[in-house]
Write a structure and sequence with these properties.
The chain is an alpha/beta fold. The protein has two domains: 2-7 and 256-382, Aspartate Aminotransferase, domain 1; 14-252, Aspartate Aminotransferase, domain 2 (3-Layer(aba) Sandwich). The chain is built from 13 helices and twelve strands. Strand 5, helix 6 and strand 6 (172-176) form a beta-alpha-beta unit. The protein binds 4'-deoxy-4'-aminopyridoxal-5'-phosphate.
Length: 383
């Protein structure tokens, strides 16, 4: 079996698993405790925070450990909206955000906030100028993802950040960075980012772990009430082993990012060319997309049939994003890109990781050709 679903989750680094086990076994103290075991765990947590901060070129006090990006996005978006509600109740996001962002805005709408959803072009990219035009005096927060999790579309964050701040210096800028970290350069200062979310399992760290960067000076209304851990943003006894593992994965991910871009980007380009040459397929990812995602539609065929056929041939791919792959609705992301219902209901995502080689891509392409041969008679003719 070859695993092609790295945008859903990645196999963890061996070093990450080993570190996590070691910290769990040997440094189990509660980092808030005053005795030696607590102090020992506290030191590890402090060091992990410093490593994460160093990786992003920010301060350790600006890093909050979370249970992943769903939590990070909720804390950032709802926390900012609630904290600054007297400043204004207008928020901006895009039509193609991950559900952990999109549904936060939907919830806030039901509670009285006004949300502007900025559309994307046919490549899935938002127009920075158009977004900035929507910023008003009462706009508290703008949230835009770095890389789209279905198509790999990359958003122009530097341009967006600078235009937003020119229009309203007090508007906060949140970036869901989940699919970009380790794949593309991350430049929080250049993007003028106030809040930035990561999920460790997308870059070979543990599942159920991530970080939220909260720029110094930004206050968030805490969604959870409790102790003062994580600056009060996230009360509860810290998961030290997980924090140390996140730090390890972040450091490794950041150090190897240029290599990932070159190595995996090359494999992605050759895979894209192959996909483009198959007349049955419609490519939904653009050349300018992230180096690890290739997304295409096979109109006339239920995507799960293709997924299962490829699985029989030893290839594990996915339909849309993992969180929504079990619902058969047309993809919101593809619909927002102007794709018709048929295309938006037949998407297949291949996402690459460190482990892949040229030979793997050749095997995948052969399997795809075999699958198409087999499935052609089953496809519903268009027109
Ligand atoms: N944002 C994006 C862009 C994602 O791809 C994901 C994971 N599918 C998330 C947020 C949620 O991350 P987590 O699994 O850590 O909750």
């Amino acid at each position: 079996m070859i695993y092609w679903d790295h945008a859903a989750t990645t196999p963890p680094h061996k070093e990450v698993v080993e570190t996590m086990a070691e910290v769990m076994n040997r440094h189990y103290g509660n980092p808030s405790a005053l005795h030696r075991a607590g102090e020992d765990a506290g030191k590890l947590l402090k060091r992990a925070r410093e490593v994460c901060a160093g990786t992003l070129e920010v301060e350790p006090s600006e890093i909050i450990f979370t249970s992943g990006a769903t939590e990070g996005n909720n804390i950032a978006i709802k926390g900012a909206a609630m904290q600054y509600r007297t400043r204004g109740q207008h928020l901006i996001t895009t039509t193609t955000e991950h559900p952990s962002v999109y549904e936060c805005f939907k919830q806030l709408e039901t509670l009285g906030w006004e949300v502007t959803y900025i559309p994307v072009n046919e490549d899935g990219v938002v127009n920075a100028q158009q977004l900035a035009e929507a910023v008003r005096k009462d706009t508290v927060l703008v949230s835009v993802m770095h890389v789209n999790n279905e198509t790999g579309a990359v958003m122009p964050l530097a341009e967006i950040g600078s235009l937003i701040k020119t229009k309203n210096a007090r508007t906060l800028f949140h970036v869901d960075g989940v699919q970009g970290f380790g794949k593309l350069p991350v430049l929080l200062k250049d993007w003028k980012t106030d809040l930035y979310t990561l999920s460790a399992h997308k870059f070979k760290g543990p599942k159920g772990a991530g970080i939220l960067y909260v720029r110094e000076g930004v206050t968030l209304f805490p969604l959870l009430a409790g102790g003062s851990q994580e600056n009060g943003h996230r009360p509860g006894t810290e998961n030290v082993a997980s924090a140390v593992a996140v730090a390890k994965a972040m450091r490794m991910g950041q150090e190897r990012q240029p290599l990932f871009y070159d190595k995996i980007g090359k494999l992605r380009n050759s895979l894209m060319n192959e996909i483009r040459s198959i007349p049955e397929f419609v490519l939904n990812s653009s050349e300018q997309g992230a180096p690890h995602i290739v997304h295409f539609s096979y109109p006339g065929l239920k995507p799960e049939v293709m997924v299962h056929t490829l699985e029989e041939l030893g290839m594990l791919v996915s339909t849309k994003s993992a969180c929504s792959s079990r619902n058969s609705e047309p993809s919101r992301v593809l619909t927002a890109m102007g794709k018709n219902k048929e295309l938006a209901s037949s998407g297949i995502r291949i996402s690459l990781g460190w482990e892949h080689t040229e030979d793997d891509v050749i095997q995948l392409v052969n399997a795809i050709h075999q699958a198409v041969e087999k499935l052609r008679p089953l496809t519903v003719k268009r027109g």
